[in-house]
UniProtKB/TrEMBL annotation:
Keywords, comma-separated and alphabetical: Methyltransferase, S-adenosyl-L-methionine, Transferase
UniProt GO cellular component terms: chloroplast
PANTHER family from the UniProt entry: RIBULOSE-1,5-BISPHOSPHATE CARBOXYLASE_OXYGENASE SMALL SUBUNIT N-METHYLTRANSFERASE I-RELATED, UNCHARACTERIZED PUTATIVE METHYLTRANSFERASE
GO terms for MF: [ribulose-bisphosphate carboxylase]-lysine N-methyltransferase activity; protein-lysine N-methyltransferase activity
Example of a GO biological process term: methylation
Presence of keyword Transferase: yes
Protein name: SET domain-containing protein
Taxon lineage: Eukaryota, Viridiplantae, Streptophyta, Embryophyta, Tracheophyta
Binding site for substrate: 246, 264, 278, 303, 315
Pfam family, one: SET
Domain SET residue range list: 88-304
Annotated binding of S-adenosyl-L-methionine, by residue: 246, 267-268
């Protein structure tokens, strides 16, 4: 939900390399409404690193529910009202976008505050542990909020009815949607063209690294409090999947991260700007509507200004093409190894925390200053070596002054370099999109087929939207280059004309 996924990258305990000694293997069931069709998926999946694919004993997640279960949602609703949630103007219902969601019961005005979930009904790193001994041990280790809450959630879930959160946990999806649950071969097969594949692999490895760190440092020393049957990579994948798709950062609570039961039934809409926050006057979690809703309409919030790739990564869905104003595509750019100044340029980039290959986000509306600075550096000749440092600094977004740098003498080459990078990306997307019709011919297992159809559809939606942005950039770049070249041609003609006069 609000801007949390990126934070994870910096807070997980990830001193571990990508070497993994345990790999997860799931059996799970997915029921997914995709646009107008319901696709039913039941399959087995595994998460593995590139190097290792070791299958361990299958362990099912014994808590949570199907992603569209209304029965569990109504038990949650009942428990929340009994626990102090005020009467609501919304109800959990089956919806077209997001399977379950909150639907207006009455007219809701624009600018109205909704929800008022009391802080006692919110899960944070300060929540009371039902197993207080386990909580006390974990607190001694100074664990960051994400892995701390992930462990808390598993601990509470394992206590089933004895946990005060049992009605909440029973209404959480047993298999939340996100790229965390795609196998390595699925990521390679469907997302090869998109940079989001790298982010997904990094995230999967971070979760495994975090779990391994907790296991080595804490769980193995307290097996009575953290038994492996409960605290294992499968349950950690589940709890991190829940956090990625439901945790919110509350700006008015000093940026605390929290799981907010009931509020986390709200689905995302790219056009909506309102988000969840703590309201000091009512001392509850609220959001203020930025449009009116009629009874029966689904109410939405914003999970943050995220690209389609980021939404797929954390939440497992891709908005309809052209509906996400925050959509962007990561374009990869690399220095040429044959560059005479390759070493000096790499050195300059290194000083600013960059490497010879970098990715930059491109939007329909344009590209960042950093991308142009990297392009200038990539094409600059040895005679400009004194400017390498300045270019590398501007390519890194760490500089405080985000001044646009311009080198008219190499602008054409730099734009051509950006165009080449976009075109090489476009060809990867086109290759995938062309082949996607034939991709499933080799499927022999019908159960796998449904999953493949579903994942492929998500990948096709993502790749189509990312390629669309690149097409737009290609158009703008070609026009700029044409203008520069025709300007040069005019200047050349003028020069020739003058020369003829003086002759
Ligand atoms: C915070 S939960 C929202 C409640 C969720 N629908 C449920 O029933 O538990 C986030 C999940 O809802 C679904 N979702 C939210 N917004 C969506 C959208 N615009 N399109 C499709 N699915 C969406 C995704 O599965 C996502 O992982």
């Amino acid at each position: 939900m609000a801007e949390v996924s990126r934070i994870f990258q910096s807070v997980v305990l990830a001193p571990f390399s990508h070497k993994v000694d345990g790999v997860s293997n799931y059996h799970y069931k997915l029921y997914r409404r995709n646009r107008n069709n319901i696709i039913n998926i039941r399959c087995c999946s595994s998460i593995s690193t590139a190097e290792t694919t070791k299958f361990t004993k299958t362990r099912d997640i014994p808590w949570g529910c199907e992603t569209d279960s209304l029965e569990n949602a109504s038990n949650l609703q009942k428990w929340l009202s009994e626990s102090g949630l005020p009467a609501q103007k919304m109800d959990i219902q089956r919806v077209d976008v997001g399977e379950r969601g909150l639907v207006a019961l009455n007219n809701i005005r624009k600018g109205e505050k909704l929800l008022f979930v009391p802080t006692e009904l919110v899960i944070t790193a300060d929540s009371k542990w039902s197993n207080s001994e386990a909580g006390d041990v974990l607190k001694q280790y100074n664990i960051p909020d994400w892995p701390f809450i992930a462990t808390y959630l598993i601990s509470e879930a394992s206590l089933m009815k004895s946990s005060r959160w049992s009605n909440y946990i029973s209404a959480l999806p047993r298999q939340p949607y996100s790229l965390l649950y795609w196998t390595r071969s699925e990521l390679d097969r469907y997302l090869e063209a998109s940079q989001i594949r790298e982010r997904a692999i990094e995230r999967i490895n971070n979760v495994i690294g975090t779990y391994n760190d907790l296991r080595l440092r804490i769980f193995s020393k307290h097996p009575d409090l953290f038994p492996e049957e409960i605290f294992n990579i499968e349950t950690f994948n589940w709890s991190f999947g829940i956090l990625f798709s439901r945790l919110v950062r509350l700006p008015s609570m000093n940026g605390r991260v929290a799981l907010v039961p009931w509020a986390d039934m709200l689905n995302h809409n790219c056009e909506v700007k309102t988000f969840l926050d703590y309201d000091r006057s009512s001392q509850g979690i609220v959001f203020t509507t930025d449009r009116a809703y009629l009874p029966g309409e689904q109410v939405f919030i914003s999970y943050g200004r995220k690209s389609n790739g980021e939404l797929l990564l954390s939440y497992g869905f891709v908005p309809r093409e052209g509906t996400n104003p925050s959509d962007s595509v990561e374009v990869s750019m690399s220095l040429k190894k044959s560059d005479k100044c390759y070493k000096e340029k790499v050195e300059a980039l290194k000083k600013h925390g960059l490497s010879a290959s970098e990715c930059f986000p491109v939007q329909v509306t344009g590209w960042p200053l950093e991308l142009m600075a990297f392009a200038y550096l990539a094409v600059s000749p040895p005679s400009m070596s004194r400017q390498f440092e300045e270019m590398a600094a501007a390519a890194s977004n760490k500089t405080t002054s985000r001044k646009e740098i311009k080198y008219p003498e190499i602008e054409e080459e730099a734009l051509q370099f950006v165009l080449d990078s976009c075109e090489s990306s476009i060809s990867k997307y086109s290759k995938f999109l062309q082949a996607s019709g034939e991709m499933d011919l080799d499927v022999t297992n019908p159960k796998q087929l449904n999953r493949r159809v579903f994942l492929k559809q998500l990948a096709v939606d993502l790749c189509t939207s990312e390629r669309r942005i690149l097409y737009r950039s290609q158009y703008i770049l070609r026009r700029r280059l044409r203008d520069i070249r025709s300007g040069e041609l005019r200047a050349l003609k003028l020069f020739d004309g003058l020369r003829n006069i003086f002759k």
